[in-house]
Design brief:
Largest sheet: 13 strands, mixed
Order of helices and strands: HEEEHEHEEHEEHEHEEEEHHH
CATH topology of one domain: Leucine-rich repeat, LRR (right-handed beta-alpha superhelix)
Strand order of the largest sheet: 1-2-3-4-5-6-7-8-9-10-11-12-13
Number of strands: 13
Number of helices: 9
């Protein structure tokens, strides 16, 4: 069938595009959603277009990843110690409330220079992931009283100054505002406690995913009497072994959490021989011992709890009343004794390798994969 001349003219531009063998242009490193709420950047190109990040200035939630680059060359282009007052009006106009920065090797003067500028912003939540901070931070600046954030999250962040990073970072934060602190995959949690200031408003402290912490490192990480308002303490996957050891660590640090998460630790049901009995904080009303590999109810539980989570363990029988504290809400799902005689095929009733229910095994695998991916991402970023 012969195409009409007019129709052929209309199709020519389309045919020329389809016939063009030239590759499509690389995707933009930054993407801004249609509502101008979230903007994410991932600068993986060998010659990144850093100016693409300008579109993120209108976003509320911003994520910027530098592709594992060493950002030291930026020190030659900017002066991190310059007075940021000339940019105050511009910074105050930014809509950003949540900022994530990651995948970079950052000189400390540059990082703290950014924090110095952000002190004039309306930022509330800051996350640093897969970052290596090199060198020492500059002197604490004069001017604003610090970065006024309520939430700080750090994952796989290493500091050249070792455990001294926390008191140094504190000097750049506005005192009395931080409510949530999350530190995961830390290279050092042995803080010089004499230099750490109190966190008067901190209610949530999450030190999960630090398997080298263990009970012996608790006092160094929970600097005594620095967390007077603490309500939620998470120690998931932190190498904890016994309830008595954790209790002793909390007592030595003087913390009084209301809720304690010890899930994903390989806990023993009994304490070490010769360890004195420990009294739990009277404020504690919720204890999470799920995914702890327990084959029996552990000794040394608090006398009274509102919530006790023993789900996804290896309990082969129902707990006796004399093994349990006075508890308002007890969770036992995912333990073998609840699945005995259930109307499931034998091969699906239990996971033969882990000894836990299939749903629990899937949940545990998801957590493990998440942690592994985070580690690999950090290693790949610095390769």
């Amino acid at each position: 069938m012969e195409l009409a001349p007019g129709l052929l003219l209309l199709l020519l531009p389309l045919l020329s595009v389809l016939a063009d063998p030239s590759p499509s242009p690389p995707p933009e490193p930054c993407e801004l959603d249609d509502e101008d709420i979230r903007c994410s950047c991932n600068f993986l190109d060998p010659q990144p277009d850093w100016s693409s990040a300008l579109q993120c200035t209108v976003a509320v939630d911003v994520e910027i990843r530098a592709g594992g680059r060493n950002l030291e060359p930026f020190l030659k282009r900017v002066d991190p110690e310059a007075n940021p007052r000339q940019y105050v009006d511009l910074v105050k106009a930014l809509r950003v409330r949540r900022l994530t920065m990651g995948a970079a090797r950052v000189p400390a003067p540059l990082l703290f220079g950014v924090l110095r500028v952000l002190a004039y912003s309306r930022l509330k939540e800051l996350t640093l992931e897969d970052i290596e901070v090199t060198g020492s931070p500059p002197p604490t600046p004069l001017g604003p009283s610090g970065l006024g954030i309520s939430s700080l999250r750090l994952r796989n962040v290493s500091w050249a100054v070792g455990g001294a990073w926390l008191p140094q970072l504190q000097q750049w934060l506005k005192p009395g505002l931080l409510q949530v602190l999350n530190i995961a995959q830390a290279h050092s949690l042995a803080f010089p406690c004499e230099g750490v200031r109190s966190f008067p408003a901190l209610t949530t402290l999450d030190l999960s995913d630090n398997p080298g912490l263990s009970e012996r490192g608790l006092v160094g990480a929970l600097c005594p009497h620095k967390f007077p308002a603490l309500q939620d303490l998470a120690l998931r996957n932190d190498g904890m072994e016994t309830l008595n050891g954790v209790c002793a660590g909390l007592a030595a640090a003087g913390v009084q959490p209301h809720r304690l998460d010890l899930s994903h630790n390989s806990l023993r049901a009994t304490s070490n021989a010769g360890d004195p009995e420990c009294v739990w904080p009277s404020s504690l009303n919720s204890l999470d011992l799920s995914f702890a590999g327990l084959e029996q109810v552990p000794k040394g539980l608090p006398a009274k709890l509102n919530v006790l989570n023993l789900s996804c363990n290896r309990l082969n029988r129902a707990p006796r009343l004399d093994e349990l504290p006075k508890v308002g809400n007890l969770s036992l799902e995912g333990n073998p004794f609840l699945l005995t005689g259930a109307s499931f095929p034998q091969e699906n009733t239990m996971n033969s390798e882990s000894g836990v229910a299939p749903a629990c095994a899937r949940s545990h695998l998801a957590v493990g994969m998440s942690g592994t991916l985070a580690v690999l991402q950090g290693v790949r970023g610095f390769a």
